[in-house]
């Protein structure tokens, strides 16, 4: 990466090697189905100057239609896991993470894939959400701006997870430019046509962006609205760890809508309201996500921010 003193344009390498991951969670059916479709016929995802590989990351979990077999693959790409000596006694997803790291990484190396899109579905009412892991990745920020403009008046929000404690080691993190795509609401194990089509359209625009970038297009500086992960909120629990309240009806399905101090947050089984006690307005998302009960998470709070993306062009 170099910066020209005249224009401030950041010159970046072409993004020739791109992967589309589906089935990182085996019960998130839009991503699984799209990737299977594209493995049978890749015409739709081909672009000039881009080599795009569709790939099922957790085939055993897809087979079982479960999130994972031994452990969550989308938490498995830690330096420790990736450097542990390989062996048949390791949990399946750790072995798989090592394989994926060999095929698409190594993570953090110059040989790693340029872009990985990882397709997920949520049971939350989040709509189309792109997930980024860095506020300094100007290629990805420009891609977000391009996609948002291309799909307007439909909307697509950007969730930024670079929280030092809440960030996790994703499958896509082996790429230089990791992009998560989370579309919902869709129940686990279920395909919904509206969710499937929304995901497909985002991928189309994302690949168009890469083709244009590789063809030498200049992308002028722009701003991108993001929702930055701030906190994780658990369900209220009793001393034995059992849940004693549900997401409040006025919060349920209200992903991305402001939650103000004092607003209802949970409702106990005997009808009492528990209010949000934070000190400022937050934007909750992943509200009542099915997969997060085991992670002790009822929703995450985010703060709205505007990031500046530098102008970019290929080197
Ligand atoms: C519902 C779900 O699986 N969400 C994803 C979000 C992500 O890809 O960052 C996960 O927790 O791994
Ligand atoms: Zn998922």
From TrEMBL:
Q: CDD domains, from UniProt?
A: M14_ASPA
Q: Say if the entry is tagged with keyword Oxidoreductase.
A: no
Which residues of the sequence carry a binding annotation for N-acetyl-L-aspartate? 67, 182, 292
Detail which positions bind substrate.
Answer: 74-75, 168-172
Q: Which cofactor does it need?
A: Zn(2+)
Q: Which residues form a coiled coil?
A: none
* Keywords (A to Z) from UniProt: Cytoplasm, Hydrolase, Metal-binding, Nucleus, Zinc
List the source organism.
Channa striata
* One GO location term (cellular component): nucleus
> Where does the Succinylglutamate desuccinylase/Aspartoacylase catalytic domain lie?
15-210
Sites binding Zn(2+) sit at 25, 28, 120
Q: What is this protein called?
A: Aspartoacylase
Spell out the NCBIfam families in the cross-references. Answer: PRK02259.1
Which HAMAP family does the record match to this protein? Aspartoacylase (MF_00704)
The EC number(s) this enzyme carries: 3.5.1.15
What protein family does this chain belong to?
A: Belongs to the AspA/AstE family. Aspartoacylase subfamily.
Which sites are catalytic?
182 (proton donor/acceptor)
């Amino acid at each position: 990466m170099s910066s020209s003193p005249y224009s401030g344009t950041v010159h970046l390498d072409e993004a020739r090697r791109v992967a589309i991951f589906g089935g990182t969670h085996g019960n998130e059916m839009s991503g699984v189905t799209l990737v299977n479709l594209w493995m049978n016929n890749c015409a739709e995802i081909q672009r000039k100057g881009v080599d795009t590989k569709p790939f099922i990351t957790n085939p055993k979990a897809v087979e079982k239609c479960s999130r994972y077999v031994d452990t969550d693959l989308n938490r498995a790409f830690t330096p420790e896991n990736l450097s542990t000596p390989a062996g048949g006694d390791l949990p399946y997803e750790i072995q798989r993470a090592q394989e994926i790291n060999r095929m698409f990484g190594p993570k953090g190396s110059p040989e790693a894939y340029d872009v990985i899109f990882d397709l997920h579905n949520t049971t939350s009412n989040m709509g189309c959400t792109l997930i980024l892991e860095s506020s300094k990745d100007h290629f990805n920020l420009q891609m977000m701006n391009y996609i948002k403009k291309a799909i307007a008046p439909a909307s697509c929000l950007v969730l930024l997870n670079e929280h030092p404690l809440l960030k996790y080691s994703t499958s896509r993190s082996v790429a230089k430019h990791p992009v998560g795509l989370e579309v919902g609401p869709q129940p686990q194990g279920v395909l919904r046509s509206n969710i499937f089509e929304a995901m497909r359209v985002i991928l189309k625009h994302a690949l168009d962006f890469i083709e244009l970038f590789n063809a030498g297009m200049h992308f002028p500086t722009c701003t991108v609205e993001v929702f930055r992960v701030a906190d994780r909120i658990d369900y209220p629990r009793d001393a034995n760890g059992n849940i004693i309240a549900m997401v409040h009806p006025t919060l349920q399905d209200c992903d991305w809508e402001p939650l103000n101090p004092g607003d209802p947050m949970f409702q106990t089984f005997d009808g009492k309201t528990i209010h949000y006690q934070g000190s400022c307005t937050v934007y909750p998302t992943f509200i009542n996500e099915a997969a997060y009960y085991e992670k002790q998470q009822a929703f995450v709070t985010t703060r709205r921010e505007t990031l500046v993306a530098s102008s970019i062009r290929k080197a």
